[in-house]
DNA sequence: GCAAGGTC
């Protein structure tokens, strides 16, 4: 039997289909899909891997000793020189700069002292896809020859080489060959398998050099930054060959914005309309001098038009222009287009993967922007019409047309550009999937359609001697726009006016403006910029940006660096500039090309890189204190929500050590005891200028961003009059009424805790009291709860009014979990609830830990 | 607890 190893299941299936005379038989070894067929009279089987099946990692069971070098300790305490493959690890004998630390240095724990050793630590390869490796070995034992048929590129050669090594463990003498193909056409696949070559170990070594260099630099710098100022577990400060230059791009743009000096300019604008036209038919007019840089000139011109009610049409010009249909989607252009529709690149890839797996779209990781001749475009369009009723009319038009597809600049033959397969059931898709599927389907149709024609009407007006202009675009021939409305501006229809006509003018205003700094990157633009600079690959860029958000170097969208992100770039560009520049990637590319060509070796390239890193680390270790302080200051600055009304120091977001909950506290603690609760369910950020201080109580006002809802601004102080009406009567006490006396229920706030509650004026007799939510201005309704008789109040949260029965024990509360954290009125009940909460918190933590563990395990098993 | 690259 001939064993054919492909990089992914899809490739395994396609190879089987192309080589087989009949239909290949789908089968399974353990849980792995395989395809059996006959080729040239021989029994064959293809198996698809899942990319890399081995993952490089440090060999952390070894220790370092200056005499022995790397060694391991046996159970009996015997010290044996470590058996390190490849000879890649070399103790730093040749770096005289660094004094040796005591013997027995381990690289296992994260310690600053061990980093010089980590720089030189041996790298081994651990199985990452255990299931697949098991299946692979099982097949290898039954085979009498093997063909490596992974993708024809550097990583593919490495994946093939790793697979071969695993095969060799059970079948050391199995004859091996390599099939090189760049597309899945029958001709290309047949040609590749008819002309087998041998595995290119140099190419695989080049790939492995990249793996090692990325791991070593990434691990050493990440551990260094994390340890320079340890911020507690879960606060890793990462660095890497791709992520750090990407972050630097964002920081650089932010610096340009900060350095930008705005310039004043003036605009004169208003509205115009054909005489007697309805208000809806008005159009914007502006002075022909779009930007006056001279204030006097602007005021002089405005003096001529201020209060003028009519103008004359001086000229009408019509010009039509063509908008060409877009090119087919490759990964980056899909990510950019989806980002413009509010789907982040990382989410785009997750959704695209699910659509691909469900068979609705073609393979989503492609650079190719030219449809292959073998793709039957017409068949796809008619299939698309069948499963998408909404697209059927436009599909019909496409089929009736000449159908000449557009083409982009990049042409490869491994995969077609991303297109809808015309199969599956799009009506079953959920929101995000549907949105992305529509984008892909409509883009595909657009690439087969004609240009759009847009007619522009330009009006020149004479407003009391001053030249004004108005302009409107109208889509006259929709062309591809019929299928692809994304980013299309709304029509601005100008009325049918002619030279000499009179026009009404309104609301002419002189506006003082300032020039704007360069815009921040959108996530889509950032992906494109990374591609332009050679950072990352189509498969990794999205996840790398996501990672930068996860470690809180980046925030918001458009992309903005945090103070921490800026501090990291400042520190690294000063002491480790290699890692902040995209040059490291281009240099690595050069190194790898030489390894590929046999002009250099993996060992030499990696060792050279280790030596460079050793120098960088030396430099960094001299400035750990300084760098740690900078990181620490930046983290504080990121947590700042405003100034303390009591002592003026910074108020920051803090995490309670006991409850792990967050609160807003003063940096002056313990001298200043000002604290506020954090609004729940929202992302909090500081405001600037006048808006940052509450005029009523002096506490900071903050911006709250709920998930996918409009942001709002509130005062952080829950007992501020802007949030709360004190001493409000919300009803009458039922218990007192039954006892034949009168008691009023009044809303209070505690001086001590700042907590809000309702209490009866005869509390000493009846003991009636109810808790209130921390925030939201109260309103009495005069109504009582039909279930329990307690008063009903309206709490005006910034997200809208919220009507509640104040009794926490009321049966109406059973239906939905309490939103507030307030406990019941009685002290015992309060205790109980607190205890329950603690248990719940513990449970959640335990759950999280287990979940995390199992995920780790799962990932390890998957890899 | 670390990177970046494949892919599920």
TrEMBL record:
Gene of this entry: topA
Keyword Zinc-finger included in the entry's annotation: yes
Cellular component, GO, one term: chromosome
Active site location: 363 (o-(5'-phospho-dna)-tyrosine intermediate)
CDD domains from the UniProt entry: TOP1Ac, TOPRIM_TopoIA_TopoIII
The protein's assembly and partners: Monomer.
Biased composition (Basic residues): 839-856
One MF term in the entry's GO annotations: DNA binding
Lineage: Bacteria, Bacillati, Actinomycetota, Coriobacteriia, Coriobacteriales
Domain Toprim: 1-186
Highest taxon, organism lineage: Bacteria
InterPro entries: Topo_IA, Topo_IA_2, Topo_IA_cen, Topo_IA_cen_sub1, Topo_IA_cen_sub2, Topo_IA_cen_sub3, Topo_IA_core_domain, Topo_IA_DNA-bd_dom
Keywords: DNA-binding, Isomerase, Magnesium, Metal-binding, Repeat, Topoisomerase, Zinc, Zinc-finger
Annotated region (Disordered), positions in chain: 406-430, 813-863
SUPFAM superfamilies noted in UniProt: Prokaryotic type I DNA topoisomerase
Residues at the site labelled Interaction with DNA: 52, 210, 214, 365
Documented EC number(s): 5.6.2.1
Species the sequence originates in: Collinsella aerofaciens (strain ATCC 25986 / DSM 3979 / JCM 10188 / KCTC 3647 / NCTC 11838 / VPI 1003)
Record region (Interaction with DNA): 238-243
Reaction(s) the record says it catalyses: ATP-independent breakage of single-stranded DNA, followed by passage and rejoining
GO biological process, alphabetically ordered: DNA recombination; DNA repair; DNA topological change
Function: Releases the supercoiling and torsional tension of DNA, which is introduced during the DNA replication and transcription, by transiently cleaving and rejoining one strand of the DNA duplex. Introduces a single-strand break via transesterification at a target site in duplex DNA. The scissile phosphodiester is attacked by the catalytic tyrosine of the enzyme, resulting in the formation of a DNA-(5'-phosphotyrosyl)-enzyme intermediate and the expulsion of a 3'-OH DNA strand. The free DNA strand then undergoes passage around the unbroken strand, thus removing DNA supercoils.
Amino acid composition bias (Low complexity), ranges on this chain: 825-838
Similarity remark: Belongs to the type IA topoisomerase family.
Domain Topo IA-type catalytic as annotated: residue spans: 200-617
Protein name: DNA topoisomerase 1
């Amino acid at each position: 039997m001939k064993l054919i190893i492909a990089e992914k299941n899809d490739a395994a299936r396609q190879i089987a289909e192309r080589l087989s005379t009949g239909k290949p038989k789908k089968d399974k070894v353990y849980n792995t899909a395989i395809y059996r067929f006959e080729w040239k009279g021989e029994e064959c089987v293809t198996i698809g891997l899942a990319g890399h099946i081995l993952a490089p990692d440090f060999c952390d069971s070894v220790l370092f000793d200056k005499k022995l070098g790397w060694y391991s300790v046996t159970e009996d305490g015997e010290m044996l020189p470590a058996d390190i493959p490849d000879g890649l690890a070399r103790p730093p004998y040749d770096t005289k700069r660094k004094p040796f630390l005591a013997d027995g240095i381990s690289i296992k724990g994260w310690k600053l002292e061990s980093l010089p050793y980590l720089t030189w630590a041996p790298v081994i390869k651990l199985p990452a896809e255990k299931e697949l490796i098991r299946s692979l070995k099982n097949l290898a034992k039954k085979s009498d020859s093997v063909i490596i048929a992974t993708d024809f590129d550097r990583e593919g050669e490495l994946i093939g080489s790793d697979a071969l090594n695993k095969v060799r463990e059970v079948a050391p003498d199995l004859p091996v060959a390599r099939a090189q193909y760049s597309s899945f056409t029958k001709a290309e696949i047949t040609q590749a398998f008819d002309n087998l070559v041998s595995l290119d170990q140099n190419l695989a070594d080049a790939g492995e050099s990249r793996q090692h260099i990325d791991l070593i630099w990434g691990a050493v710098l990440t551990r260094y930054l994390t340890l320079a100022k340890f911020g507690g577990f879960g606060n890793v400060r990462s660095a890497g060959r791709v992520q750090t230059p990407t972050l630097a791009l964002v920081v650089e743009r932010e610096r340009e914005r900060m350095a930008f000096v705005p310039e004043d300019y003036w605009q004169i604008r208003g509205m115009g309309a054909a005489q007697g036209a309805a208000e809806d038919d008005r159009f914007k007019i502006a002075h022909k001098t779009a930007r006056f840089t001279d204030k006097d000139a602007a005021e002089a011109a405005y003096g001529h038009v201020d209060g003028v009610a009519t103008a004359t049409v001086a000229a009408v010009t019509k010009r039509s222009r063509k908008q060409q249909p877009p090119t087919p989607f490759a990964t980056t252009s899909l990510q950019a287009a989806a980002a413009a529709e509010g789907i982040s690149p990382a989410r785009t890839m997750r959704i695209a993967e699910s659509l691909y797996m469900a068979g609705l779209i073609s393979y989503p990781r492609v650079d190719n922007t030219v449809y292959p001749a073998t793709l039957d475009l017409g068949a796809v369009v008619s299939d698309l019409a069948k499963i998408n009723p909404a697209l059927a009319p436009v599909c019909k038009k496409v089929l009736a047309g000449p159908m000449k597809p557009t083409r982009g600049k990049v042409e490869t033959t491994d995969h077609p550009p991303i297109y809808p397969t015309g199969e599956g059931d799009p009506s079953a898709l959920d929101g995000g999937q549907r949105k992305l599927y529509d984008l892909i389907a409509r883009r595909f149709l657009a690439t087969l359609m004609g240009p759009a024609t847009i007619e522009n009407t330009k009006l020149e007006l004479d407003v009391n001697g001053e030249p004004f202009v108005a302009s409107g675009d109208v889509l006259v021939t929709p062309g591809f726009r019929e299928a692809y409305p994304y980013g299309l501006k709304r029509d601005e229809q100008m009325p049918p006016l002619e030279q000499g006509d009179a026009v009404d003018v309104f609301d002419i205003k002189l506006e003082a403006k300032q020039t704007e700094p360069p815009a921040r990157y959108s996530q889509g633009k950032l992906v494109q910029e990374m591609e332009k600079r050679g950072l990352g690959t189509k498969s990794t860029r999205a996840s790398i940006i996501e990672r930068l958000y996860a470690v809180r170097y980046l925030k918001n969208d458009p992309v903005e660096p945090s103070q921490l992100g800026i501090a990291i770039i400042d520190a690294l560009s000063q002491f480790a500039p290699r890692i902040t520049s995209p040059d490291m990637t281009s240099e690595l590319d050069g190194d790898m090309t030489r390894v590929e060509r046999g002009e250099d070796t993996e060992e030499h390239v990696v060792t050279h890189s280790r030596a460079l890193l050793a120098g960088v680390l030396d430099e960094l270790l001299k400035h750990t204190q300084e760098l740690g302080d900078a990181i620490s200051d930046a983290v504080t600055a990121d947590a700042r929500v405003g100034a303390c009304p009591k002592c003026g120091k910074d108020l920051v977001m803090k995490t309670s050590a006991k409850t792990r909950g967050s609160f807003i506290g003063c940096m002056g603690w313990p001298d200043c005891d000002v604290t506020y609760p954090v609004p729940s369910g929202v992302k909090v950020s500081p405001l600037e200028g006048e808006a940052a201080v509450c005029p009523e109580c002096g506490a900071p006002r903050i911006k709250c961003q709920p998930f996918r809802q409009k942001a709002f601004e509130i005062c952080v102080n829950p007992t501020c009059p802007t949030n709360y009406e004190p001493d409000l009567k919300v009803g009458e006490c039922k218990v007192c009424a039954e006892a034949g006396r009168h008691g009023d229920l009044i809303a209070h706030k505690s001086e001590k805790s700042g907590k809000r509650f309702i209490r009866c004026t005869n509390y000493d007799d009846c003991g009636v009291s109810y808790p209130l939510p921390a925030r939201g201005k109260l309103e009495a309704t005069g109504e009582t709860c039909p279930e329990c008789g307690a008063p009903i109040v309206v709490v005006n949260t910034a997200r809208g009014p919220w009507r509640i029965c104040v009794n926490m024990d009321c049966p109406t509360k059973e239906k939905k979990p309490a939103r507030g954290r307030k406990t019941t009125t009685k002290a015992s009940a309060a205790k109980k609830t607190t205890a329950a909460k603690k248990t719940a918190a513990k449970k959640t933590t335990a759950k999280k830990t287990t979940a995390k563990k199992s995920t780790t395990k799962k990932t390890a098993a998957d890899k």
